[in-house]
Amino acid sequence: MDYAGTIKQILTKLSPPPTVYLHSFGCRQNVSDGNSLLGKILDMGFAETDDINTAALIIYNTCAVRESAEKKVLGIIGELKHIKENNPDVIIAVCGCMVQQPQIIELIKNSYRQVDFCFGTFAYDKFPELLYNALTDRNLRFQYDITEYKNEYSNFNLHQEDNERAEIPIMQGCNNFCTYCIVPYVRGRERSRPIGDILADIKTLADKGYKEITLLGQNVNSYGNTLKPPVPFSKLLKRAAEVEGDFILRFISSHPKDMRKDVIDVIADSPKICKEIHLPLQSGSNRILELMNRHYSREMYMEIVKYAKKRIPGCKISTDIIIGFPGETEYDFEQTIDIVKEAEFSHLFTFIYSKRKGTKAALMEDKTTDLQKRIRMTELISVQRKIAERRENEIK
Ligand code: 5AD
Ligand code: SF4
Q1: What's the pTM value of the predicted model, to 2 decimals?
Q2: Fewer CB within 10 A of the end CB, N or C, for the chain?
Q3: 61 CB under 6 A from ligand 2?
């Protein structure tokens, strides 16, 4: 049955159309998934609203990367109980990374009875069916779908939130299994979109007048490994920059273990590619990097930074740092401070380690107290602030 088409037929009879409120949490990949879903919902005949109190359909697209993100969503969907009490016909759905975890489905099923259905990161195509069931059977109690469908990530809707800046996913999933990270568990293995599809999307957006296009992936540097024949990321980047139009290109995120010189050379040689690279370091300690399963050393990382700065004049490099990974000692942390001073990042995103059930690091002993982690975080931020101030003064 064509559920999306059937819903559309039903909704065209309504005037004004019912409204949808959709909010995404987490990384830009997740926000992009949310926009793609919203595009499909608007195609079905819903109108978008930012007033949650009058929406006929409420969707929260969730993140699982840190516990704080999950707690926030659970707090919000807890509050939706009142909305459901006032309007039993409102349909409430929760999707994305957080609900890909079976223990979260159990929790929602048992303790958040206002939620009508949940669907995971593989089940976007099942959304119309779940919605149709909820729309046509009020007695239905809680549906969910977290099956790991073997989709090739082709069913992407180019709907964008903004008129100037656009985002295009080039791949899904991750194969790296960094020991702290939930992503490979909630988004599955790496799948790349065909280069032709991506270039066609860039052309469509460029023709519409978008000024900034960001290519998204959990590890863009391993783009194309699953394609037949494989396509290196540097080739995609070069071809993308050759698409006609007045736009600049960005991409996130890179994994230092896969960041090769050919990519840096393409950035250097193409005026259309933004001279900023986000290169998550995570830790400056080789011992911790190994425990994290990152497959590079601080020396290898600095080699890339030096090459990028030499090859691309004025190149900005930003990074992510995790503080308080299990077993991180004062010495390990000093190593991080050291490399932060040496690399002179344009921006630092700092995160206190969050234990994620099912990951390898969750089983590692963690003796560092919360207080110690907070002190380290404050120190790191203050080191970075001094670097930024010094650089600003140099520019003046
Ligand atoms: N705890 C804290 N930070 C994490 N990140 C990923 N997993 C965790 C975790 N368990 C951070 C990493 C990553 C960024 C997107 O989030 O620094 O690069
Ligand atoms: Fe993005 Fe990871 Fe959060 Fe999912 S869990 S939304 S992939 S940061």
Answers
A1: 0.94
A2: C
A3: no
